[in-house]
């Protein structure tokens, strides 16, 4: 019998399968003392974990990784049950997650060990180093659309950096969090990773209790989390919403582009923050691309035993998708599907063309299987339109011209740009990930992701007395005369730029 089974129903979080609404699991609704206890345990675990050093932490993390891999089928079944996504999609999520955990474990020492930096000519008597120290306890607040891959992008790197983690998952998908903590207990046996199930109030108390917060969710919720974090100046890394655009040039491989439009827009029922919600295609190939996209969308299975994607995980998201489809159709034309596609929890694919740029379907995150395809005269115009939202998470460029692709990628205001693919970065563990504008700030993954969960500490050690000792209250006139002569010698000889 679990703690949740013993608790009154009002103190439980119950999850339901979005496919058939059947209960999946019951979890404690952590409140008050529960949150304090979880953080207290994590603080004790953090002390032990930090003292392990890089080599031992690497070994523990890789052992934990092997336990996760051994239970991949069980975990995928749990993810599928709570999100409604196909079992194969859940397995892919696990594979990508383990790749990041492996990279973080194996590269933490190289990235974070204390290193020497140049002190400069004047400071020849100083030995200067910079190091990275863990914050202590990091609170991770995870989303429901990718309940393993996304939060583990913070958890893996925070743990590898030497922090303990308290993981508060979405109340829609707490199962993977509890499962991960159980595997940690088996593999390591210390309270370094603690799962904390609950609701928004649970998350708010966690924000007030830890040393850093890693949040993934909507921009609106991120602002609330930041407001709570500001009470104690708790630092936060936030991955928020997106309205990702795909740009298709006249010379693009249209078959490949069409494949990626459908994958990016419809995969996971469109519930991907870095998928494809907008497409800007150059006019000379517009009709051809739309026809190829529709041809592929027609082949999608959304019911039966082996669907390409499942239902909306969050029931209220159906209303958002319906509103965006209605708004898109006020100015655009349906190339496939329409309002009737939004008839229940499973939303059929919708493709709408030539939608007004001020439409909600163009400006705001839909998070459902709706894609807008708009026509532009050039790749430059596509970049301009892609940048014209409050979001800046991801973008994609399709062209055979490497120079044009590079120029477009440079001009796009997004945290990540893929060229001739969509989501191609997701499995590249060395690449940092995060957004700009209202898509968030800070980075997970890669070396930047490891440093994100550390406080920088600089150390300067004087190795000998300086010939010109300026760090004294007894400086002489001669000393200051020397300084006055040195300033133009060291810093006054730069040549003016050429016009």
The coarse overall form would be globular
* Beta strand %: 15-25%
Work out the helix count: 16
Q: Show unreliable segments.
A: 1-7
What is the CA-CA span between the terminal residues? Answer: 78 Å
Helix content: 40-55%
- Name the average pLDDT: 96
Radius of gyration: 26 Å
- What is the number of strand segments? 18
The assigned structural class equals alpha/beta
Strand order of the largest sheet: 12-13-14-11-10-15-16
Major β-sheet annotation? 7 strands, mixed
Question: Would you summarize the structure shown here?
Answer:
The chain has helices at residues 3-6, 33-70, 72-83, 87-112, 149-160, 175-187, 200-207, 219-229, 254-266, 286-297, 317-331, 360-363, 379-386, 402-411, 446-452, 477-491, and strands spanning 12-16, 23-28, 115-117, 126-134, 137-141, 164-168, 193-195, 212-216, 236-239, 245-248, 278-282, 333-336, 350-353, 370-376, 394-398, 416-419, 440-441, 454-462. It is of the alpha/beta class and 499 residues long. Strand 10, helix 9 and strand 11 form a beta-alpha-beta unit.
Can you give keywords for this protein?
499 residues, alpha/beta, 7-stranded mixed β-sheet, 6-stranded mixed β-sheet, 16 helices, 18% strand, globular, disordered N terminus
Overview of the molecule:
The chain is α/β, with parallel strands linked by helices and 499 residues long. It has 16 helices and 18 strands. The strands form 4 sheets. It has a 7-stranded mixed beta sheet, sandwiched between helices. It has a 6-stranded mixed beta sheet with strand order 7-6-5-8-9-17, sandwiched between helices. Strands 3-4-18 form a 3-stranded antiparallel beta sheet. Helix 2 (33-70) packs across helix 4 and helix 5 crosses helix 15. The longest helix has 38 residues, at 33-70. The protein is globular and about 85 Å long. Residues 1-7 have low confidence and may be disordered.
């Amino acid at each position: 019998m679990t703690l949740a089974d013993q608790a009154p129903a009002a103190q439980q979080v119950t999850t339901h399968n979005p496919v058939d609404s059947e209960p999946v699991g019951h979890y404690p609704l952590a409140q008050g003392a529960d949150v304090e206890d979880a953080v207290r345990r994590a603080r004790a675990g953090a002390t032990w974990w930090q003292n392990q050093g890089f080599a031992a932490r690497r070994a523990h993390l890789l052992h934990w990784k092997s336990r996760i891999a051994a239970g991949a089928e069980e975990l995928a079944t749990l993810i599928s049950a709570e999100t409604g996504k196909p079992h194969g999609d859940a397995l892919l999520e696990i594979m990508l997650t383990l790749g990041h955990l492996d990279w973080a474990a194996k590269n933490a020492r190289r990235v974070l060990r204390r290193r020497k930096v140049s002190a400069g000519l004047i400071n020849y008597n100083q030995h200067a180093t910079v190091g990275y120290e863990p914050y202590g306890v990091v609170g991770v607040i995870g989303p429901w659309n990718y309940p393993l891959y996304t939060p583990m992008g913070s958890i893996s790197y925070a743990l590898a950096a030497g922090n303990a983690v308290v993981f508060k998952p979405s109340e829609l998908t707490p199962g993977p969090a509890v499962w991960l903590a159980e595997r940690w207990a088996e593999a390591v046996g210390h309270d370094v990773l603690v799962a904390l199930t609950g609701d928004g109030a649970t998350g708010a108390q966690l924000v007030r209790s830890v040393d850093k917060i890693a949040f993934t969710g909507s921009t609106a919720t991120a602002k609330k989390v930041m407001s709570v974090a500001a009470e104690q100046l708790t630092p936060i890394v936030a991955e928020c919403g997106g309205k990702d655009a795909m740009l298709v040039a006249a010379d693009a491989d249209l078959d490949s582009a069409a494949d990626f439009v459908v994958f990016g827009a419809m995969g996971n029922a469109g519930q991907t923050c870095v998928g494809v919600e907008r497409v800007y295609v150059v006019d000379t190939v517009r009709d051809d691309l739309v026809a190829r996209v529709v041809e592929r969308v027609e082949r999608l299975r959304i019911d039966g035993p082996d669907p390409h994607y499942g239902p909306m995980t969050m029931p209220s998201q159906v209303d958002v998708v319906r509103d965006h489809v209605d708004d898109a159709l006020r100015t655009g034309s349906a190339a496939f599907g329409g309002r009737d596609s939004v008839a229940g929890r499973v939303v059929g694919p919708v493709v709408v063309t030539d939608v007004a740029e001020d439409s909600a379907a163009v400006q705001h995150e839909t998070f459902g299987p709706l894609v807008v395809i708009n026509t532009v005269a050039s790749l430059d115009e596509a970049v301009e339109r892609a940048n014209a939202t409050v979001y800046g998470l991801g973008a994609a460029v399709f062209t055979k011209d490497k120079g044009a692709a590079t120029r477009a990628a440079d001009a796009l205001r997004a945290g990540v740009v893929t060229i001739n693919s969509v989501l191609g970065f997701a499995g590249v563990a060395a690449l940092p990930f995060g957004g700009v504008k209202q898509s968030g700030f800070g980075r997970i993954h890669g070396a930047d992701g490891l440093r994100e969960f550390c406080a920088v500490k600089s150390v300067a050690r004087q190795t000998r007395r300086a010939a010109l000792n300026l760090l004294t209250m007894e400086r002489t006139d001669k000393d200051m005369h020397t300084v006055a002569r040195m300033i133009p010698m060291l810093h006054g000889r730069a040549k003016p730029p050429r016009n």
